Amino acid sequence: MAEEINNPKDESAVPPSKPVAPAAAVPPPPPKPAAPAAPPKPKGPVPEPWSDPLVDALKEKFGADVIKAFSFIGQNQIEIGKGRLVEIMTFLRDANIAQFTYLADETAVHWPKTEEFELVYILYSFEKNQYLRVKTRTKEWEAVQSVVTVWGTANWLEREIYDMFGIKFSGHPDLRRILLPEDWVGYPLRKDYDLRLQDVEWVRKHLGIE
Questions:
Q1: How far is CA 113 from each of CA 108, 116, 139, 193, 195, rounded to the nearest angstrom?
Q2: Nearest to 89 by CA among 149, 138, 144
Q3: For labelling, which of 34, 77, 107, 181 has a CA lying 20 to 30 Å from the CA of 197?
Q4: Where are the beta strands (DSSP E) in 73-207?
Q5: d(CA 68, CA 138)
Q6: Cα 77 vs. chain centroid, distance in angstroms?
Q7: What is the pLDDT of residues 55-97, one digit of tens each?
Q8: Which residues contact 149 (CB under 8 A, 6 or more apart)?
Q9: In whole angstroms, what is the distance from residue 186 CA to residue 116 CA?
Q10: Alpha carbon distance 142, 168 (integer Å)
Q11: pLDDT > 90 in the chain, percent
Q12: At 158, which helix (H) or strand (E)?
């Protein structure tokens, strides 16, 4: 026993340990699937033809001056030529089939590329509880008939259109600016009006601001 303690076993007699196998390479993660294509944008609302006894009556009486009738998002609209504007508006006010006795609004849209303005009249019938939009177009240098003789409220609405767009209304009793000073230069709601400049000369003249 003592001999064994004093003379340990030869280390060479110990069997060598087995070599450790290298770790297997980790495969790369699979590629992510491509994102699905975005769904196509839904189409927006489009105008639809509007058929109505009122449209038939207008076409029968005014012929080609009634250009088209359509409905857009539930809003009935007619586009007319401006040559018989007052006649058509009077018909829409007085005819039993129409009875649009109230001019709710009158405004304009500027289309500078075509040198045109679109006038928009919003009519309301108390008897039928219905709105109707009437549209007509005019060139920049052409006047439009005033409808003051049909609806008195057009007086102030047409003055505002003149003030903001520069559209002139023939037959208007008092066509002058209503919001801006009389000596203001330019028409702020035209799309070619430079808001950064405003009327520099008027500001300098009346307010003394450089």
A1: 15, 8, 11, 14, 19
A2: 149
A3: 107
A4: 75-80, 102-111, 116-125, 130-139, 144-145, 169-170
A5: 16
A6: 16
A7: 999 999 999 999 999 999 999 999 999 999 999 999 999 999 9
A8: 86, 171
A9: 17
A10: 8
A11: 63
A12: helix 154-165
pTM of the model: 0.77
In contact, 105 and 119? CB cutoff 8 Å: no
The number of beta carbons lying within 10 Å of the beta carbon of residue 158 is 26
| CATH topology classification for 48-180 | Beta Polymerase; domain 2 (3.30.460)
In the block, residue with structure tokens 């304009």: 108
Delimit the domains of the chain by residue range: 48-180
- The identity of residue 28, as a single letter, is P
Of 195, 134, 133, nearest to 164 by C-alpha is: 195
CA distance 110 to 165: 8
Structure tokens at 174: 């008092």
Lowest mean pLDDT among 45-49, 165-169, 183-187, 200-204: 200-204
